[in-house]
Amino acid sequence: MAKNGVKHLAVILRSGHSDERSQGVVKEIEALGCQIDLLSADVAIASDVDKAFQATTVPIAGIVQGAMVLRDRMFSSMHVSDYHGALACKVQGTWNLHNVAEKLGLKLDFFTMLSSISGVVGQKGQANYTAGNAFLDAFASYRHGLG
Ligand SMILES: NC(=O)c1ccc[n+]([C@@H]2O[C@H](COP(=O)([O-])OP(=O)(O)OC[C@H]3O[C@@H](n4cnc5c(N)ncnc54)[C@H](OP(=O)(O)O)[C@@H]3O)[C@@H](O)[C@H]2O)c1
């Protein structure tokens, strides 16, 4: 996005951005003339999303939902915590991004969700992840339905 001229980005994740790899990416983005807000928040927690959305330097004009947690395991031995561990950021996280954006009256140019073909064809050992991606596909239809 920065390479294509975006001047402001805000990135949300839970674990912070101080690691070497993140710092390298931040430097590259800033060198392209893009200012980046580094926010720590859990998208599965609505109040976190609310706070993060109100902490950006400029108003949010578009959302890319790319949160992912993998807890791969055959479904027959998948613990319910593994199931929800992978699902929460995609299902609850997406609802929170959508609801907070609505609540704040944001005028969004795009609401892009990074789903996966696994949500359509399935994937051994990833029933939780594929369910999350199937949800994202359905949510895209839901938002289209809202216009
Ligand atoms: N990689 C692939 O081959 C591939 C293929 C098809 C689709 N995709 C999709 O593309 C997207 C990105 O994939 P990726 O490979 O770039 O994944 P990744 O490197 O694992 O990045 C996922 C990010 O999500 C963040 N995250 C997870 N749970 C979160 C939460 N509750 N709140 C806020 N941030 C959260 C993680 O940071 P923290 O853990 O610090 O929060 C991490 O930075 C995913 O939606 C995935 O389904 C990827």
TrEMBL record:
Which superkingdom does the taxonomy of this entry point to?
A: Eukaryota
Which parts of the sequence belong to the Ketoreductase domain? Answer: 1-147
Gene3D superfamilies referenced in this protein's UniProt entry, alphabetically: NAD(P)-binding Rossmann-like Domain
Residue ranges annotated as transmembrane are none
List, in alphabetical order, the GO biological process terms annotated in this UniProt record: fatty acid biosynthetic process; secondary metabolite biosynthetic process
GO molecular function, a single term: fatty acid synthase activity
* InterPro entries listed in its UniProt record: KR_dom (IPR057326), NAD(P)-bd_dom_sf (IPR036291), PKS_KR (IPR013968), PKS_NRPS_Biosynth_Enz (IPR050091)
Give the PANTHER family listed for this entry: ENZYME, PUTATIVE (JCVI)-RELATED, FATTY ACID SYNTHASE
Which protein is depicted? Fumagillin dodecapentaenoate synthase
